[in-house]
Amino acid sequence: MDSFADVGSRGREAVAAVDLVTGAVVGTARFVRDDDDPLSAEVAFEVVDDCQRHGVGRRLVTELSALARREGIERFRAAVVPGNESAFALLHRVGRVVKSSFADGAHQLVIELDPLPRSA
Ligand SMILES: CC(C)(COP(=O)(O)OP(=O)(O)OC[C@H]1O[C@@H](n2cnc3c(N)ncnc32)[C@H](O)[C@@H]1OP(=O)(O)O)[C@@H](O)C(=O)NCCC(=O)NCCS
User: Fold this and answer.
1) Each residue of 9-39: pLDDT tens digit?
2) Does residue 118 sit within a domain?
């Protein structure tokens, strides 16, 4: 696996990880910009069980956050169920949690995204 592609349009973006041998999509990460706050977007990501813990999620979320930053998005909102340590780890890699509440059985997080590097 080592192929990534943007598959969205402005305000709704996704990146996908593709197994180069089988052509199967093994992971996706996507965001949808909030209607009432254009600086914020809801994010979700997933990797198929067999490919987890190999850095696919990290690569997806890193690519997606750079894409979001380039589109002027400053914050991700994410719902993460208690105990989902890999999701927490991924989100902490791309920014800083500035708000956290608990609703609907999940931590409702707001992550202020790190600025893009000058060269990105
Ligand atoms: C969350 C998910 C996308 C992670 O994908 P992944 O490909 O396994 O992630 P990575 O291999 O890149 O690992 C991500 C980080 O989590 C850490 N991690 C993985 N499993 C962990 C565990 N059980 N406990 C603690 N940390 C863990 C890794 O060390 C890594 O940290 P690092 O980047 O600091 O080294 C995947 O587990 C998944 O699809 N879960 C179901 C859907 C979901 O929960 N989505 C998130 C809510 S939107």
Assistant:
1) 568 999 999 999 999 999 999 999 999 999 9
2) no
